[in-house]
Amino acid sequence: MSTTPTANKSGLVRLFALITVIFGAVFFVAGAATWIAVSTNLKAEKITVSEDATFAGGTVDTPWEAFSQADIIKHHALDATGGKTYAELDREDPLRDVAMNGSFLRASLFTSVVAFGVALLVMGLGVVLALVGLALRKLTPAVASTSERTTPITA
After folding, report:
1. Is the Cα torsion angle 136, 137, 139, 145 positive or negative in sign?
2. What pLDDT does 8 receive?
3. What's the pLDDT score for residue 144?
4. Of these four, 83, 96, 114, 142, which has the most CB atoms within 10 Å of its CB?
5. How far is CA 48 from CA 74, 97, 139, in A?
6. Secondary structure (H, E, C), 80-129
7. What are phi and psi for residue 150, nearest 5 degrees?
8. Is the dihedral of CA 31, 32, 33, 37 positive or negative?
């Protein structure tokens, strides 16, 4: 009794497909958990989008609200400093603290925007991996036990 090489390959492909589906599910769950964690932590900060921003009045807990608030902070900081950035202000200028705080706040908000983007990327990658794994399983025939019996040749 011998197992055919095709049966071994089919079994390995099906195993690889199953592992790919599992990794896809793990990636999707990890991305979703990251999205929820970032959103929850932003919401806990109780940041409200400025009235003159795109998503006025909303609590910052989504990437578009974080981006909108970061953008309006830049606008307000430049208005306060006469259009000068932190690096352009003299070291003794009292407005330098305003520019610095604005830069720090914007950097923090942009970090959350990037985190949301990475979470979405990981979720998308998880979906793609799961679909590839399912396609591989569908295209590869199931092999329960393909053994061929050899019958002796009698003359």
Report:
1. positive
2. 75
3. 55
4. 96
5. 16, 22, 51
6. HCCCCCHHHCCCCCCHHHHHHHHHHHHHHHHHHHHHHHHHHHHHHHHHHH
7. -100, 130
8. positive
- DSSP state string for 6-72: HHHHHHHHHHHHHHHHHHHHHHHHHHHHHHHHHHHHHHHTT-B--TTSTTTT-BS-SHHHHHHHHHH
User: How far is Cα 134 from Cα 122, in angstroms, rounded to an integer?
Assistant: 18
Q: How many other CB atoms sit within 10 Å of the CB of residue 74? A: 15
Q: Tell me if residue 77 falls in helix, strand or coil.
A: helix
Q: Which of 140, 139, 137 is nearest to 21 (CA)?
A: 137
pTM of the model: 0.79
Contact 126, 28 (CB under 8 A): yes
pLDDT tens-digit profile, the chain (155 residues): 455 556 678 888 999 999 999 999 999 999 999 999 999 999 999 999 999 998 999 999 999 999 999 999 999 999 999 999 999 999 999 999 999 999 999 999 999 999 999 999 999 999 999 999 999 999 887 765 545 555 666 65
Could you give phi then psi for residue 47, rounded to 5 degrees?
A: -85, 130
